[in-house]
Amino acid sequence: MNFAPILPEVIITLGAIALMMVAAFVRRASAITHWGAVALLIAAAVSLVGAPQEAGAVFGGMWAADGFAAFGKVIIYLSAAVAIIMAHGWFDRGFEHGAEYPVLILLSALGASVMVSSTDLMMLYVGLELQSLSAYVLASYRRHDERSAEAGLKYFVLGGLASGILLYGISLLYGFAGTTYFSGISAAFADDGASLGLTFGLVFTLAGLAFKISAVPFHMWTPDVYEGAPTPVAAFFAAGQKAAAILLATRVCIDAMGPATDSWRQIVIFAALASIILGAVAAFGQTNIKRLLAYSSINNVGFAMVGIAAGGEAGAAAVLVYLAVYVVMTLGAFLIVMRMRDAEGRPVESIDSLAGLSVTRPALAWAMMAFMLSLAGIPPLFGFWPKLMVFNVAVQAGLLPLAIAAAVLTVVGAYYYLKIVKVMFFDVPAEPFAAARGRVETVLIAACALAISPLGYLIINPLSTLAANAASVF
């Protein structure tokens, strides 16, 4: 059997097992597992160059070794590496920052990697559950923190419910299509049209996936889990895991359910607009920065789903570009949240604590302003470009009302991003944050800020070309 198409997954799997052995038999192994996990993720990302990405469907048609999956895996691996680096300076040394944390991130990234390559419903479910089981533990990682325990419990209970819904949808699709392969399901939709049984299977499958991407109305877990989970974990949930779930939903809709576009497009359009509206409006009264970023992630999921609704190669390419830029903006914002600590070094999450940051920590204030305005899609920052792309593909697909509605709602959502800027630059300074530590985190903040600045437009053509080539598999 040829294992070359799964070379990145093999590296992560064997590396995770090795690091677990190190954690079991080596004293004070947290530093080894920490940097070893980062090295493994970088090696997995680099190995994508050597793995055959034009092999198409392999392992009996259950796995796709293509450019679309490779593009998503790079996003996932780099997000996971940043989440591990963030934890090195956030958890209490010798107490919380155990050797198991980076291993859990590796396993979650492995599940996410399987998700984006799945072309079979069973493989899809295996990857999704591997990612989710690790995520449940990560959400409740601070076992002595009530908020973290609550976040893990809520995520586990609601995640179990979503898994049941997804499995029911999978069973219906299998029962009426006679196969779990995406190609077979697509053929069934093409031959029989959207029959009642297939339509019900489609609805329940999309409902299960909607939970994983925290799209309305399956978003209820997101603010509580992001607030209670450790900040590095919340960053990984908002970036890597969310990107994997959106890419999986894109493949399911365009590949497995392509002939039934008229059926699933209505569901996706509703979820997209509802997510944009709720993500914008519900964030208005938030006082916790992590809850605000949770609603921001819901809002951005809505814009990504506009690209899914457009369908085809152009829609998939727009989703890829949107996620690449969104992940950079989100990780940058969470890296700054990590720097919010009081004089005693305890994490501070209130938005009011950002007051006067332009005076007490001007570099952080300017970087945070760049991330907030870019998330809002305000030009000339680079976050404007992916929003423009998804609007453009929606218009090309004949969805002009959707594009207009999403563009108008962008203005509504900009309010709470501008509120953060106002607090930092115009409010009376609050108690200054503790002195920053961690040069690697500082470098990452600077790199993210530069990437979403107007300098990001220098890579528009290469990024768009890569995304278009990756989406050509559809």
Automatic annotation (TrEMBL):
Source species, domain of life: Bacteria
Span of domain NADH:quinone oxidoreductase/Mrp antiporter transmembrane: 118-411
Reaction(s) this enzyme catalyzes, per UniProt: a quinone + NADH + 5 H(+)(in) = a quinol + NAD(+) + 4 H(+)(out)
Membrane topology type: Multi-pass membrane protein
UniProtKB keywords: Cell membrane, Membrane, NAD, Quinone, Translocase, Transmembrane, Transmembrane helix, Transport, Ubiquinone
Alphabetized InterPro entries for the sequence: NADH-Q_OxRdtase_suN/2 (IPR010096), ND/Mrp_TM (IPR001750)
TM stretches of this protein: 6-25, 32-50, 70-91, 98-116, 153-176, 196-221, 264-285, 292-310, 316-337, 363-385, 397-418, 439-460
Compartmental location: Cell membrane; Endomembrane system; Membrane
Uppermost EC category: translocase
Major location category of this protein: membrane
Subunit text: NDH-1 is composed of 14 different subunits. Subunits NuoA, H, J, K, L, M, N constitute the membrane sector of the complex.
Function of the protein: NDH-1 shuttles electrons from NADH, via FMN and iron-sulfur (Fe-S) centers, to quinones in the respiratory chain. The immediate electron acceptor for the enzyme in this species is believed to be ubiquinone. Couples the redox reaction to proton translocation (for every two electrons transferred, four hydrogen ions are translocated across the cytoplasmic membrane), and thus conserves the redox energy in a proton gradient.
Family the UniProt entry places it in: Belongs to the complex I subunit 2 family.
Record-given protein name: NADH-quinone oxidoreductase subunit N
Species per Swiss-Prot/TrEMBL record: Sphingomonas swuensis
